[in-house]
Amino acid sequence: MLMSIKQCARVVDQDQTGNGTARGEFCLMRYRPLFLPLSCAALCACSSLLPRASTDTPAGFASFEEAAAAAQRIMALQTRTSELKNIGFDPVDGRNVTLIPYPEIVGRLVPNPGVPLAKLDPGIRQCIEAQTTCRGYQFHFERQHRQREGSFWLDFLNVRRTTKVTGWWFDALIVISGDTVLFRNFAGQAYTDRIEQQNNPLGPLQSGADAAAVAVH
Predict the structure, then answer these.
(1) pTM (2 decimals)?
(2) C-alpha distances out from residue 114 to 122, 125, 126, 162, 174, Å
């Protein structure tokens, strides 16, 4: 391929001086799709050509710490449902909120049915007693940035792709009945920093080989 491009460039030069043949026009049409990406690669830093992506789940919090501090303001059996919006956890108009029905709440909060009711958290006991009027809301907030690193050509040819993932995520479970918060818990990761690597020995042929392998099985 490289020798063909060089030969083609030589033919085009000859055409421009009037000493070439119609092969020059043929070469331009044949390799024109390659000229632009090759020129860009020569003019730009290879790392800047690697793709980037981000995940941003809208929230009123700029960090995990800020979300956790807000969640700690929610007190079981004290905080009113009407106060949740001002704290940053709006179960009605908030985004990225999942409504959890009563049976699933019980399955999450009481994984062992053999535990006596008296041994359970007071808020969980009230949820069980309230039955279907008890409901839960799971809030999910996330901000992640994905940056491909390494060799541009190995990435471009799908030989080796390395992705650096940074950011944070936060989940909060709030259980309410009527206008009272019965239970609150949260979890998450304050700082995500990991490397994802994908190796494809066959390069651009890998996807086709995988498809063939699936077809055979």
Answers:
(1) 0.63
(2) 17, 14, 17, 48, 24
